[in-house]
Amino acid sequence: MKKGRKISKVVLAYSGGLDTSIIVPWLREHYGCEVVCYCSDVGQGAELEGLEAKALASGASQVVVEDLRTTFLADFAFPALRAGAVYEGRYLLGTSLARPLIAARQVHWALQLGADAVAHGCTGKGNDQVRFELTYQSLAPQLAVIAPWREWDIVSREDALLYAEERGVPVAQTSKDLFSRDGNLWHLSHEGGPLEDPATVAPESMYRLTNRPGLQPGTPDRLTLGFEEGRPVRLDGQRLDPLSLVEQLNARAGLHGVGRVDIVESRLVGMKSRGVYETPGGTVLREALEDLCALVLPHDLLRTRAELAPRFADLVYNGQWFSPLRVALQAFADRALEPASGEVTVELFRGQARAVARSSPMSLYRPGLASFDMTGYDATHAEGFIRLFGLPLATAARRDAAARAAVTAPVAEALEVDDVV
């Protein structure tokens, strides 16, 4: 934030975790301002218990908590699913998808309450600072932005724990559990602690949503997902709202250990970092929808969607949810998936989610065409098609043969003259 600007009221994106817990007293000490804590419920579960009392005890003047679970799924996670967005081929963007929603509602309340600043607890090395602040710029560039991790002299999680202890701020994290976690309905992420060494195997005790192999059922579980225009709407024939559907998928897929990803990824700010993600329900939905798309989309549309998907994922990962390009790519994805209505059966077993059957009234698969039975298909048409399809190859071959002949002819003539002599 620009130095010298007077701040009277700030709305802090508050999670109740270590960082934001100590930011409340820090803002009061360093800016002498009123602090309003804002929290979005996007599926953190037990993390929200006692959050309001904790924030008030830390010095906040007001706490705003909103239930945005359905909005998060319907307007952020599911649109990204339709776009096929997976960052660097593996990360299903759980945290990246939640941040623009949280920041947008934080801005809303800042304007409603007459605040002149917004604040977040993102570190100066992470991606989240970009996601929050690009959203602020997109929706309310007049608000001042306070990012304590770029201002204070706390340089480690151990320092933060000491700061909390000195000020009597209650935190759940201890020096024995230094994982940095972020959870929502779509995933649970784990960073920091022993994971900072890529050569260290993540301990099984770290996982919260997915069973380890020894606890997974010994028999597969098959479920059937129903889609309408690329939107998941049914589970095993029962129509469900987004929240109920994802909660049930998380439970069933997590039981089988589905959705674990341990990766080294490229942060926007220029470094590599390691993250371990648990995305059980999202993994099942992706497997099912991609399988359905293969059934109902023509090849060129399927291929173009796949080509655009990494670009969409980059935009989300980089905090550009509200950018004109992301909105335009979303329009393409939604239009492309209008035929994506149908059902896909997915088998869950030993950490894997695998599509095993699919059907759709919009299917492009025709048994009569795909089978080995030649009835209704004139095989003689293939000859002309192959000749036309191979015409560029034949043309290139003739050109190259002529070029080789032009080079070797003088040599052959010289050899013939030598023989005569």
Please render the helix and strand layout as text:
Layout: E1 9-13, H1 18-31, E2 34-41, H2 51-58, E3 62-67, H3 69-83, H4 94-112, E4 117-119, H5 128-139, E5 144-146, H6 157-166, E6 180-183, E7 188-191, E8 221-228, E9 231-235, E10 238-239, H7 242-255, E11 260-266, E12 272-278, H8 280-296, H9 299-317, H10 324-336, E13 342-349, E14 352-359, H11 367-370, H12 381-389, H13 391-420
Helix pairs in contact: 1-6, 3-4, 3-10, 4-5, 7-8, 9-10
Provide a quick synopsis of the model:
With about 425 residues, the chain is an alpha/beta fold. It is about 45% helix and about 20% strand. The longest helix has 30 residues.
Task: Characterise the protein shown here.
- By secondary structure, this protein is an alpha/beta fold.
- It has helices spanning 18-31, 51-58, 69-83, 94-112, 128-139, 157-166, 242-255, 280-296, 299-317, 324-336, 367-370, 381-389, 391-420, and strands spanning 9-13, 34-41, 62-67, 117-119, 144-146, 180-183, 188-191, 221-228, 231-235, 238-239, 260-266, 272-278, 342-349, 352-359.
- The chain has two domains: 9-68 and 96-176, Rossmann fold (3-Layer(aba) Sandwich), CATH 3.40.50.620; 183-369, Argininosuccinate synthetase, chain A, domain 2 (Alpha-Beta Complex), CATH 3.90.1260.
- The strands form three sheets. The chain has a five-stranded parallel beta sheet with strand order 3-2-1-4-5, sandwiched between helices. A five-stranded antiparallel beta sheet has the order 10-9-8-13-14. Strands 6-7-12-11 form a four-stranded antiparallel beta sheet, with no helix packed on it.
- It starts with 8 loop residues before the first strand and ends with a helix.
- The mean pLDDT is 93.
